[in-house]
Design brief:
Blueprint: E1 11-18, H1 28-34, E2 40-41, E3 44-51, H2 57-69, E4 73-79, E5 86-89, E6 91-93, E7 96-97, E8 109-111, E9 120-122, H3 127-136, E10 141-144, H4 151-165, E11 172-178, H5 182-185, H6 196-212
Parallel strand pairs: 1-3, 1-4, 4-11, 5-10
Antiparallel strand pairs: 2-3, 5-11, 6-9, 7-8
The structure holds pyroglutamic acid.
Residues 18, 21, 27, 29, 53, 78-80, 148, 150-152 line the site of pyroglutamic acid.
């Protein structure tokens, strides 16, 4: 197993956001992530990378960025239009089941992300602590128990598979879904949205909390159904 970074060496944090998809002109995940490129928190520095909304290519781009940067923390971010809160995802499942085509026209149905690999992996972020810190800062947030079955779950599963199968001491990762920007939601009556400033602030809190909290808190993030 490769050695952990020495206490004085810089800690790299990789944040990924997606290209726009499904007739959208922007993707809030890339807008929020790119605003944090170069942000320093303690001795950690954030590196932002854009990933294509394409099955397969999204994971390839992530692997390339991880090989290049050798991060200690990876947060993949995606748009979840229709959600009202920052959603800290708990679990990635080994299935691709696309309701719509991705940006390359691919539409896998009931195919594994990684053939023969485990059914699911849990996020290794302190998901409950992040939700609590966000709410304490006045940002609506919850733990989410499904990241769906489209490209976001796909990259999340790919990330957790990599972390599990190519262990690097101290490396942790997970996925966060974010709502529409107001300009996107304005096209759909009743759709919730969040300002870019609030989403950027939320990601700062998520990164800082993930760097600080190694052992998650015991607080419910469950749902009845
Ligand atoms: N959201 C999609 C894929 C890309 C994105 O930003 C999803 O939730 O799967």
């Amino acid at each position: 197993m490769p050695k952990a970074a020495s206490p004085s060496s810089p800690v790299r944090v990789l944040l990924t956001g997606f290209d726009p998809f499904e007739q959208e002109a922007v993707n809030p995940s890339w807008e929020a992530v790119r605003a944090l490129d170069g942000w320093k928190v303690g001795r950690a520095v954030v590196h932002a990378r854009k990933v294509p909304c394409v099955f397969g290519d999204a994971i390839d781009t992530l692997v390339h960025a991880m090989d290049e940067l050798k991060p200690s923390l990876v947060l993949c971010i995606g748009q979840a239009g229709g959600r009202a809160e920052i959603a800290i995802e708990r679990i990635a499942i080994n299935i691709d089941d696309a309701r719509v085509a991705d940006n390359a026209g691919r539409r896998p149905i009931d195919l594994p992300v990684v053939p023969g690999a485990p059914a699911a992996y849990f996020s290794t972020l302190p998901i409950k602590a992040i939700a609590r810190e966000l709410r304490a800062a006045g940002v609506p947030a919850s733990v989410s128990n499904s990241a769906g079955t489209f490209v976001c779950n796909h990259i999340f599963y790919g990330l957790m598979y990599l972390i599990a199968t190519r262990p690097v001491a101290g490396l942790r990762g997970g996925f966060i879904h974010i709502p529409y920007l107001p300009g996107q939601a304005a096209r759909f009556a009743g759709a919730p949205s969040m300002s870019l400033d609030t989403m950027v602030q939320a990601l700062r809190i998520a990164v800082a909390t993930a760097l600080k909290v190694k052992q998650d808190i015991a607080e419910t993030g469950g749902q009845l159904y």
